[in-house]
Amino acid sequence: MKVTVNILCICFVALWLCAGLSVAQTSGWLNFRSAAGFRIRYPANWFRIDATPKNLMIISSRQRVEAAVIPRGAQMISVYESEPVANDDYLLYHKTANPDDAVLDYTSVDIAGNNDNTCPKTYVVKSRDEVGPNTFYLENHMYCKIGARVFVLALTQWEADKFNQAAYDVAIDMLKSLRATKEMR
Predict the structure, then answer these.
(1) Hey, is 164 helix, strand or coil?
(2) CA of 159: how far to CAs of 11, 55, 175, in Å?
(3) CATH superfamily, region 28-180
(4) pLDDT tens digits, one per residue of 122-179
(5) Would you say the C-alpha torsion 165, 37, 108, 70 has a positive or negative sign?
(6) Phi, psi at 12, each rounded to 5°
(7) Beta strand 149-158 with 75-82: parallel, antiparallel or unpaired?
(8) CA distance 182 to 81
(9) Dist. CA 126–CA 138, nearest whole Å
């Protein structure tokens, strides 16, 4: 009887821990190879919602996504190659490309890429994007330059949702895995 109770307790604790997995606690990683000439890893417990072989778009929730509107409480990450940015001025580039967005912060993150095909530093533009009347997304556009190429990872969530540090950490881990594989210009 005591052994059965202990086994049931262990099973209950294991189920409780599995049910409480956060965004950052992934069950492994999957590889995405873009037809645009880059590859990146993404968490296996996030879900692909894109339909193009050039860009990656994933979401942290199984809930249905409609017209690129993410469910409340979820985060979306998209990864794509950008045009070259003049003088590496990512803030000006972002403001020009997104004139209606309010820039909230601009920082750099050293992610210590160790060769010519990795991203040594990422420039992060945090902005607020109105997607409907008094309805806003918070976006972190992370610009990564590899050689002469610029890649963007955009982390998006509802402004009304609490900032999700785990999702931000997943985005940084994804950028650490980003590799330029060939020139496509």
Answers:
(1) coil
(2) 37, 24, 23
(3) Mog1/PsbP, alpha/beta/alpha sandwich (3.40.1000.10)
(4) 999 999 999 889 889 999 999 999 988 999 999 999 988 888 899 999 999 999 999 9
(5) negative
(6) -60, -45
(7) antiparallel
(8) 12
(9) 7
Distance CA 35, CA 55 (A): 8
- In the chain the first and final C-alpha atoms are separated, in Å, by 69
- Do 175 and 142 form a contact (C-beta atoms < 8 A)? yes
Q: Which residues contact 111 (CB under 8 A, 6 or more apart)?
A: 119, 120, 121, 122, 172, 175, 176
Domain ranges within the chain, ordered by starting residue: 28-180
Nearest to 48 by CA among 5, 25, 78, 18: 78
Name the pTM for this structure.
Answer: 0.80
Kindly give, in sequence order, each residue whose CB lies less than 8 Å from that of residue 36, ignoring residues fewer than 6 positions away. Answer: 54, 55, 80, 81, 184
Whole-angstrom CA distances from 129 to 4, 13, 102, 157 are 54, 41, 7, 10
